[in-house]
Amino acid sequence: xxxxxxxxxxxxxxxxxxxxxxxxxxxxxxxxxxxxxxxxxxxxxxxxxxxxxxxxxxxxxxxxxxxxxxxxxxxxxxxxxxxxxxxxxxxxxxxxxx
Length: 98
Description:
The protein has one helix spanning 2-97. The chain is mostly helical.
C-alpha cells in the first residue's frame, strides 16, 4: 500500500513539475514576444518623430498650396463673371446692330 501511495505521490509531483516547466517555457516565450513588441514600439516612436519633423518641414508649403487654391478659386469666379459680362455685351451689340 505504501508503494502505491508513493507511486501516486511521485506521479503527482512529476505532473506538477511538468506543469511548472510548461509555465516556465510559456513565460520565456511571452517575455521574448514582449521584448520584440517593445522594440517594434520604440521603432514606431522613432518613425513617428521623423514623420512629425517632415510634416513640420512641409507645413509652409501646404499653406502656400492652400493660398494658391484660394487664389485660383477667386480667379475662376472672376473669369466666370467676365465671361457672363462679355456674353451680355455681345447680346447688347447684336441687338444694336439689328
